[in-house]
TrEMBL record:
The lineage of its organism: Eukaryota, Viridiplantae, Streptophyta, Embryophyta, Tracheophyta. This is ATP-dependent 6-phosphofructokinase. Substrate binds at residues 203-205, 248-250, 304, 362-365. One of its GO terms (biological process) is fructose 6-phosphate metabolic process. It is an enzyme of class 2 (transferase). Mg(2+) binds at residue 175. Catalyzes the phosphorylation of D-fructose 6-phosphate to fructose 1,6-bisphosphate by ATP, the first committing step of glycolysis. The gene is PFK.
Amino acid sequence: MTGATSIRKLPSLSGLHHRRNPLEDNPFFHPSDGFYITTSDVILAQVAYDLSAQSQSRVAYHRAGPRREIMYEPSAVKAAIVTCGGLCPGMNTVIRELVVGLWELYGVREIYGIPAGYRGFYSMEAVKLDPKAVHDWHKKGGTVLATSRGGFHLHNIVDAIQLNGFNQVYIIGGDGTMRGAVEIFKEITLRKLEVGITGIPKTVDNDVGIIDRSFGFQTAVEMAQQAISAAHVEAESAVNGIGLVKLMGRSTGHIALHATLSSRDVDCCLIPEMDFYLEGKGGLFEFLEKRLKERGHAVLVVAEGAGQEMIPRNESQKQERDESGNPVFLDVGVWFKSVLKDWWGREHPDELFTVKYIDPTYMIRAVPANATDNLYCTLLAHSAIHGVMAGYTGFVPGPINGNYAYIPLEEVALTKNKVNMSDHKWAWVRSVTNQPDFETNFKGQSL
Ligand SMILES: Nc1ncnc2c1ncn2[C@@H]1O[C@H](COP(=O)(O)OP(=O)(O)O)[C@@H](O)[C@H]1O
Ligand SMILES: O=P(O)(O)OC[C@H]1O[C@](O)(COP(=O)(O)O)[C@@H](O)[C@@H]1O
Ligand SMILES: [Mg+2]
């Protein structure tokens, strides 16, 4: 295979001195050949190539892991950890592993938790953390540090970082948080502060781009499946029963898609990436009518961001935003339940019909991480620590094709992981559910 490899450059702190990595003397590690990662170790963004193509350029990221030399004297490190945005299974595990990793791997003793998200930097007292304080946090859902939306005041935050003397900042959060972290990174660079900044990607929606998947996502999918199973039982046990499940997914339908694929009880999955329609040929009602006739029941899974533009709303509802500026949705499940009942009442006024609506929203994200996600959180936290200790800044650690890499923060903040409607996964959903191909049907209808 020919073609150039372009390695994504990582910012690094320039005013620090090289030091021997204390892992050299750590009784649990015996650094030998291949233990340390060098600057020429990279992870390719893409692993599948067409060998018959003439020449292909490749994108690569620096590989995550310990470096032979570090840039901080561990006794001079003052680290801050903050969690922002919505909850996600595993947040406490990441905090725990950052604390334990900094302490055990590098001998850092000054580690602080910032309470309640970005606003906590300038409005609340930081909490001192050590391995004893966090020892069982991985068993708890949520974030012990607390989180919040909004409250992003750049100068107040950077002033507080400076005033407290934090020289490493670990920011755990989703797409909004990453955009904020980019601003913090830029301001820190402008002020010429020797502060390492890393963003640890957290999102139950799995909407952060470039990385394979986000931590907590698998746990959330498992929980979502329980809701689908319950909806299936309810629907099967009724006459013309519809089990309706609303799942999280603000602008991406990954949870709904994965839960549908692994459940196989779902008759139709609706996600924000896809338009659909209710009435007429090829529409949802026609499909459900057929399903109820054939099977006596149907299960409908809808991501919270799907069909939002179809729900009637007043002017103030149109303008509503949460504290971070995210649009506030109307409940698509409540709306669906009512339009389904209206439709059936119109078409079959004398026949029994039941819609059982299950909204497990917060239940899927407020649980502790499962074993796989816990392990993932640990590797993520360790990757973050190794990168910051090595002097990198403005980066995000994350798995790419199964290997951990460092990605420039700005690149992550600009990328969104949406469901690709034209790849095999969505085709697989349609083949499993047999649901209508709304896009094609709609085109056919308007011909
Ligand atoms: N464009 C932005 N610039 C700076 N800060 C932002 C931006 N968008 C969101 N934030 C801040 O990031 C934090 C989390 O954002 P939010 O969208 O609520 O959650 P998430 O990070 O999980 O997507 C909030 O404190 C919010 O004020
Ligand atoms: O926590 P809130 O403010 O109720 O918001 C709920 C939203 O949070 C999420 O769970 C996660 O969103 P973020 O990753 O942006 O925090 C969305 O799925 C959902 O729309
Ligand atoms: Mg978000």
